[in-house]
Hints:
This protein folds into 2 domains: 263 residues, no CATH class; 175 residues, no CATH class. The mean pLDDT is 85. The radius of gyration is 23 Å and the shape is globular. Helix 7 packs parallel to helix 11. By secondary structure, the protein is an all-alpha fold.
Amino acid sequence: MPANPYIRVHRLQRRHRWRTHPWEATWPWLAPVLLGAMAAPLARPILFWFESRAPELFAPGLSGLCLRLGLALCGAGILVVHEQVVRGPERRILDPHPVEPGALVIAMGARLLRATSGLALGACLLLLPLVLQGRMRAFGLSVVVLLGGWLCGLALGFLAQLGAVWAAQHPSMRGLLDLVRGSSPPMQAALIWAPGLAIAACGGALVGATRALPAAMDGNVAASLMLGAPILLAVVGWALVPALARRTWYQATTVVAEVDAAWAQVEDPKAARRVYLEWAARWVPKGLRAHVIRGLRQGWRARRTWVTGAWGLGILGAVAGWTASSDAAPRALLVSGSAVAVLAALAIRMETGDPRWLRPALGLRRDHLIVSRVLVVLAYLQGAILPAVAAVWLRRGVEAVVLLGLLEGLAVVCATIASVLALAGARAWFAYPPLALACWILIERSLS
């Protein structure tokens, strides 16, 4: 048995979750692994664009790919840590009790390391085309860079968030926080800027590692050692976390409470009740209107990250399609189409996030629930579609009309599949990905 009592608790919780809800315990880890493996051949023309170019472009192209994937893993780790440290469930439960913060953050780090390992493995699987080409050394060195970005994001995420609590309450930092806080409360400015500083530090280490990657592939020993810079930074950062947690863990609760109190004084009470796209429900038939409004409210208030994330992925699709070359529409379709296929799973998340007794208790008809959820998910998916279509329209003209039709068709099919499967509960998480992937492949091939 581990000496850390919080690790023992997390182990017991994980064991009980496996026994009671094996589907829900397996899927969050397994999903990115399966998606990475299945998406690797489809994403190859975009990720490995340098394969068909001059041989001297291979090493710089691979370095850029590893930098982007490493930064994505780093950012994901930092965001997960931010959610857990600042407003995580452990804080709400354990704050009234005497805990040992150093041991607690070690247990949290171990839990997040295990929980996000599937995401890191899925990112590494995107590099499988290197294995198929027989470039095993390039694959191994690239995996080291990606794992370094993942570990660095988690370690620096803890260090930045706990350090932000210290900065929010230290008098010497008040002038700097007033300078950068904008309209936010001074104490919130530290929490806002902390992830950015962590990404900047991790990004610097990743830049150094990826610049050394071409020389490392040629056998340079010093360059090979440089690939471990993000891992070294993660080790150094994590070594500082327990001592910092003992100083700032309980102070974080005070900082968050003061931030919430500051916003409560200036917040419009009506703004908290506003729901994204609820105004559009007026054009829905009366028989479905109540169900659509309920779905919009559930999505905006309980799953807002999915909604705002759609627009973020749509912007990435716009960046991919912002080119005058003939592959503008395929590039935008690859990014926005994959976003649509993934985000349509919101229909399943909305169903599995509710207690099992809620739907029978409300007397919801299955057909009305399916249709209303399809409409809600389609409305949310426009954020992933419209920016990409607009970019292709501005650069390639009428090609955007075809792109719009394909993306909207994919959205309708995926939203319908997810809404129907959602009624099966957590088992839908295993049935939806292969069906969504098949639809995505058909759409991709129809454009090519």
